[in-house]
User: Fold this.
Amino acid sequence: MLEPLHSAVAANRFGLGARPGDLDRIGRQPREWLAAQLTGPAPQLTDAGLRSSADILAQGLEVRRELRAARRAAGAGNAAAGERNAAAPTDATDQANAAAALLKVGQIYRPIYVAEATARLREAVATDRPFVERLTWFWTNHFAVSVDKNLVLGLAGSLEREAIRPNVLGHFTDLLLAVERHPAMLLYLDNHVSVGPHSKAARALDRRDRNRRAGINENLAREIMELHTLGVGGGYTQTDVTAFAEVLTGWSIGGEAGRLKRGEPGQFLFRPELHEPGSKVVLGRRYSDQGYQEGVSVLHDLAAHPSTARFVATKLARHFIADEPPPRAVERIAAAFRDSHGHLPAVYRALLESPEAWSPDLVKYKTPNDYIVSTFRGLDLPVDGGRSPLAPFELLGQRVYSPGSPAGWPDRSADWDGASALLKRIEWADAVGQRVGNRRDAAALAPQLLGESLSESTRKAIARASSGSQAIALLLASPEFMRR
Assistant:
C-alpha cells in the first residue's frame, strides 16, 4: 500500500492537488513523476492582455505626470481665486481634474492585477507540472512584494512572470539578480529614492538647499540579507546593512520625473549620479567602487554564502515537509545547494530524495491558496466560470499578491488553522457543493483525489450524505482534504 500513498503525497504535498486520474498516471513512480517536471524550461504565462512591467510603468508615469499637472493647476486656481475673492468654479474644476487623474491610476492598475492573478490561477488549475508551479509560488512568496502598496498593484504579477518563472529552474544567483533588479522590488522597497550622501546628486542638492539632505534608504539591502539570502542570524550586522545600502544606491528605474527623466520608462537603470562613491565593506569583504557591478558582486557573494544555503533549505523543508523542518533534511538540501553552487533543480532533487518528505502523516495544513487551488483542480471547476475566480482568496484570507509585508505569507499551520478561518472554509465548501450539486460524484472522486490517505470515517460520511451537494461539501471539509 506504500506506493499508492506516495502517489497521493506527490500530487497533494509536492503538487497543487490531485485531479481525477492523476494518481493513476503517477502510478508507482511518484519521485520520477516529480523529477521529470524539472526538465525543460519552466512554463510561462502567455494569456492575452498580459503586459510587460516596462509598458505598465510607462503608462503609469504618464498618468502621474497628468496628476502632477492637475495638482499644479489646482494650486494656481486656488491662488487666483483667493486674489479675486471670488467663488471657486476654477478651484472646483481643477480639483476635480486632480481627483480624476488619481482615479485613473487605479483604473489602469486594477485590471492589470486581475488579469495577472487570473492567468496565474488558470495555469495552476490546468498545469501538468504542478510541482514546478508550486515552486514558482514558493519563490514568489520568498521574494514577496505586496499590492497593499499602490505602486506595486500593477507590477506584482509581472515580477513573478518576468523574474521568477524564467529562473525557477536555473541558478539561485540568476533568480536573485533578476528579482532585485525588477521595478516591482525596487519600488516596493523604495530603492529608487535612495541617494548616496556623498553622491553627485547629493552634492548638487546641498548647493541648492542647505536645509535638505539626501539620504540612503536601507529597505532593499536589509530585506535582501534578512529575507532573501542570509536570514535572521545569518551573520550580518547593521553596519553590513548600511554598507550594502550604499552599494545599491543608483539601482533605479528609467523614466522618472524631473532631472532624473532619462532611460527607458519602466526599465531597470543604474543612475551613477545617485551612487555613493568609494569602496565599501560588506561581511568583511571590501568592494571597490565599480558602480552597478559593485551591487552584482555583493549579490553573487550573498548567494554563495553558507547561511543562504541553510536559510533556503530550511524554508523549502518547512514548506514541503513540516512546520518544524527535520534537521537531516535541511542539511541534505543545504549541501545540495552548496555543492551545486545554487543550481535549483539539484536542490529540488535533494528535497525529493529526503525520506522525511514522504511521511504518510498529513502534517502540513493547507493555506487558503492551496485549499482553493486544490478544490478547483479536484472538481475541475472552470476558472472563468460566472463569479470572479479571485473572490475566494479574499474571502478565506489570502488575497493574491497581498502578503502585507516583505516577509511574505506565513508557512506554519498555526497561522491558518484558527476556528474562524476553519468556519469560513466550511462555509465556502458548502457554497461550492451547492454550486456543483449532483454534477460531481463525491464518493467516486474521494479516492481519486486523496488515494490511500482517505480515511474510512470520511468515506462513510460522504457515502451517507443526503445529497450530492452535501457530499461534495463533506469531501472538501474533510481533514484529509484540508491537509497535504
Observations:
- The first strand starts at residue 251 and ends at 253.
